[in-house]
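Quick sanity check, ATP-binding cassette domain-containing protein:
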Amino acid sequence: MIRLEHVTKKFKTKGNEVIAVNDVSLDINKGEIFGIIGFSGAGKSTLVRCINLLEVPTSGAVYFEDTDLMKADKKELRAYRQKIGMIFQQFNLLAQRTVLDNVCYPLEVAGMKKKEARERAGELLELVGIADKAEAYPSQLSGGQKQRVAIARALSTNPEVLLCDEATSALDPITTRSILELLKNINKNMGVTIIVITHEMKVVEQICDRVAIMSKGSVEEEGTVQSVFLSPQSETGKKLVLPEEKEPVSSPTKNYLRIVFDGQSSSEPVLADLILESNAKLNILGANTEDIGGSAYGQMLIEKPDQETLERVKNYLDKKKMSYEEVEVDRA
Ligand SMILES: Nc1ncnc2c1ncn2[C@@H]1O[C@H](COP(=O)(O)OP(=O)(O)OP(=O)(O)O)[C@@H](O)[C@H]1O
């Protein structure tokens, strides 16, 4: 649906040149939720601004379906931008307008009659679960409620694509989860393609189908969330999936088996079955699994048992198609 071909964006500053996006090629498919993840300064926001042509790439091409947007005239570009809705970390609501009027605003700009715009805005507020706040002002809302209004506003013009730039970064974990759930429903029920920019792996885990990992302007790694989560190949991927502070045990002193939970199963039955299957007491050195919608994500470290037990454990994990690695602790 959207194709980036060798997109580069350079900024000239006083006597200096910053390459914010460096030769990025990506294909975003219709109907998917695509994540772009990276640490601060990786170039994510600039890349997104290149996708909606708010920033014109220094070189490369951006295609929407078969249209080369770099060659599009003003009218074509306007039509393209209408197909793209956007939400931000800071919500960007108009403080002087009520919730309903915030959602009406893009419709009025697009020339819709006031009565019709209010009706449509009302339906959208219903859809995002905040119809009871229609007459409130943004300052009277919580962060999660503000983001719901921003989502309703972004959807008002029936976009085909929704760009979410760190949309949950200012929200607490529970509110984050509910906003991500809402985005997932919008994707599923309305068929809106969603592009999510984030620095948090848990956001990618919860809603994305595929992900690109960015560092220093380039895409270091790209793939399904499952494959990247299971075995990140790039340095940045490893840091994001297995951040140091999230290591279950900072420095285990015994050899261990690292078991990866990738969301296919819940950790509790796995653990119970493992113990039954191996017919031995297993010593858990640490775990940081997280239950997301009934599935476990994360990892667990188990002290390496004797060889016979280890084989039984590995057989069970192979049978369950779960990933693991044996780690020898360097005692030098
Ligand atoms: N208008 C600009 N002029 C000069 N340099 C810029 C401009 N916009 C971005 N940059 C630089 O480009 C690089 C990438 O910035 P960008 O904001 O795209 O990264 P990011 O991954 O979105 O980070 P963050 O999450 O912190 O916003 C940074 O080094 C930034 O300083």
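Posting the structure with no commentary besides this: The CA atoms of residues 106 and 156 lie 7 Å apart.
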